[in-house]
Amino acid sequence: MAYIWRLSAIWLWKETNSWTAVPAQVWIPKESGTLNPSFEEARDSSWYWVIDEIYESYTTKNFSNITLWGIARDDFIGYLLLWALWKYSKVKCFKANNISWWTPARWDMVSGWALKKIIKIWNTNYYFFDWNVSSWSVSNWTWTMTLTEVSWVKGHFFERLNSNQHPSFTIYDDDPIAWSYAPYCMINTFELSCEVADYVKFNVEFQWKQMQSATAQNPVYVDEAPFLASMAGVRFANNESWLNDASEQCMQNFRVAINKNLTDIQCFWSTDIDSIYNQQFWVEWDFEALYESTTLRDYVVNSQKKALRFYAENKNATPLATWIYPSIYVDLMKVWLNEWTKTDTTNEIIKQTMWFTGQYSNNDSASIEVLLLNSNWEGY
Length: 380
Fold this sequence. Notes:
By secondary structure, this protein is mainly beta. The protein contains two helices and 23 strands. It has helices at residues 77-85, 295-301; strands spanning 9-14, 26-27, 36-44, 56-71, 86-100, 109-110, 113-121, 124-129, 137-139, 144-160, 169-174, 179-195, 200-208, 212-213, 232-237, 251-259, 262-265, 275-278, 282-290, 305-313, 327-342, 351-358, 368-374. It has a 21-stranded antiparallel beta sheet that branches. A hairpin with a 2-residue loop joins strand 6 and strand 7. It is globular.
């Protein structure tokens, strides 16, 4: 049966126990990516008094991989963020009617609960707590404020889990010829990128155990709000607390990548992978902007460390609440701007490209945080 690639589907779900497959529940619209088996082999190149190189070979390792590209949308991107970072909090959105004594800050504790994030939308600060408070006055004995919940805004907060054994997913591939799945699936790299006049895109590289046969499924997709460059922004500040009031930078493109450096463990008696571990964690990025001043270049020259925010807000979607729309905020607490170049094309406007490496901020106890706002009541 011949078919075009558009008739293939990818879907997934979280595993309760790694390597124990679970039924698929989330379908991911994609622009590219197919589940493929990968093999390693042992070759017998012994001499048999002939000029032929190979005498015998055996498959010694059988695992699976996929690199998936697509458009970042306001709901399913949460599963990819969970997969990449694996520390997740469902947070509630509050507006403060009055604040006294002091200014609340990220990670202030109130009765054992944390103020995870403060995001300014238009001219209003919204406070995201990891608790179930409704509308009343709260205090941490330094400041007090009266909170009103913005109940239709569902907040999802992602951080890096400080472990070398992040949980896993089962991933499925469906096309008119065959149906396959692979358990113990983990992310090796996760990227968000954006170019002027285009969508915000994701690019994810997965690795997992060997493929197995599955039963046919009928993919079911739901409409979600996509993010575009016209909805996105980039900001620099001296630290995370200043990002809300930082100026927008005029960008031509932007990319942020999370690298988890997977390693697989294989044991005797099997060609399959036994387990997968994420190793050292780091974040990197690059962007291109017009060369209109030496400000960005001097960040590199002076080895300055900056906090950085990439965000996107879909104002074409149905608002979650007054002036609040489906949106994503990616905050890097401490970035080292370590490389810079400018273009030298004779007849074109000069642009500059910068690269950075994300660093762990001891003051913030984090390197990266992501806040996703949508209407997902259940969480990830």
